[in-house]
Amino acid sequence: MSREGVDHALRQLRADAERISAALLDLDSHAGSQLLKGARLTGETWRRWDETQRKVATLWRLFDAYTSVLDEATALRDSTNRPDVDVLLTLTAMLTGPSVDLPDGEVPLDQRTLLGPERKRVTLDEAVQLMSDEYEAAAAVVVAADNAWTALLLPLDDVEEGWRDAARVAHELDGVRHPELDRIGRELTAFGRIVRTDPLSLVSGSGSEAKADTSRLEALSKALEAFRAELAGAVAARDGHTALVDRLTGAIDEVAEAEREARESRETALLKIDSPGLPDPVEPSAGLRDRLAALAALCAEGRWRELAARSADLERAVATALDRVRADRDLAAGLLDRRAELRGRLQAYQAKAGRLGLAEDARISGLHDRARDLLWTAPCDLRAATAALAEYQRAIRACETETGTRG
Prior knowledge:
With 407 residues, this protein is mainly alpha-helical. It has 4 domains: 141 residues; 83 residues, no CATH class; 96 residues, no CATH class; 69 residues, no CATH class. The chain has 12 helices and 6 strands. Helix 1 runs parallel beside helix 4, helix 5 runs parallel beside helix 7 and helix 10 runs antiparallel to helix 11. The mean pLDDT is 88.
């Protein structure tokens, strides 16, 4: 190498050394590295972190060997302003030839002897490549652990805090143990131990595809939220059971009123409509009142969670009963509405027949009288009346069409 070539190579290699040093320091100070150093690791994370620490230690030793060669070459170059051929040959060998002693751990087993590893040297460029490979492997472990903790630790803390709050509320509510809450607590403790000591066991994929599995924590969170919702309902039932009873009483009264209306509509339909096909009447209000009365015992015994559950069931039952009773009422009323509709249509077509000059037509009048008799006779045969009205309508339309054709 020429003097200028040597100077250029030294500047480039020194800049590379500064970048490598900065990268190693960043790796050491990375949040993931700090967490791994401070945690009591187990399992897969302990194994990979132990291996990573050895890699990082070897990396630093290799970097020291690398910088030692640079320092020696720089000192030799600085020793003279005009290096002779021998100095340039020596510098060329140092900068381009095998000049970096590999640390013992980097010598492959098949190249060692019983007395220890034989000394092996690599070029500066080869040393950089070796350091790059070790750095990428170490950084991958650090980043994967940091990403796993980032994805899991804060959500885990939130769920654990939620569990403690639920346990406090449950104890204040009735002072008894709750199997579901205990189960969630045990699973949360076990999962928390894994998250804090072996996060890499929860990571799937590698590199940029590596991702922590949060499904177990999400399932625990969902189960806890369901239990907390149940507790909230129990607290609401305890604090507002008087208002709850009043609300349910009012709702059941509404069912009873709908029963009365349905009963009246049914009786009227049975009198005025022939074979109405109405279902047997349902009157659930009495049973609902019995269920409401049973809630008083739960209040007296302070069984608030059961009170909340049964109250919710009763509210759903009341809503279902009200819909059913109203449907029966509307069905009976609908038959009467249908008769009224048919009567209105008959009157409208009678007026049309008069406008067309068909009032004296014997056939048309006979069809009208038959339909009218059916609609104004109790009980009314709606099927027959509908058919008679349809025949009356067709006859009027036919006459109308015939008259129009003549015109």
